[in-house]
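User: Second chain of the day. Same drill as before.
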Amino acid sequence: MFDQSPDGQNGASHEEPEVEEEEQEAKFAVLRSVSGDEVEVEQSIIQQVAGHDIEIEQSMVGLTSGENVALEQSASVLTVGRNVTVEGGATVFLLAPTVRGTVRTLFDVRSALALAVGYVAARQVVRLLGRLFEQDEEER
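Assistant: Same format as last time:
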């Protein structure tokens, strides 16, 4: 368990970069990585969180990956899970078959797929136009 009081005494800080055990709890911490079967994060900044059951409250996470993920008033850049519950949170990329709650996301599975298809189509159109202009210049 990593607890740190608001005045910086006891527990984890940026000096404890990686943590891996069965059950993890991080409060008022800045960590590179936390993983375990059950992970609880509160008011922390963590680069990567991985586990089976993950609960994140009032925190910021880069990558969140787990079977059951719960975000409450938190932000995650990439959230991947089988069952994701979000209350008052946001994520840039959300990859999950089951999502509950109120989540703000930029890209879910469908929008990411649509973006990829649009990118490939636009790239093909640009190539085709480039070839047409090359042929036109060669004929002159």
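The chain has one helix and seven strands.

User: Great, on to the next one.
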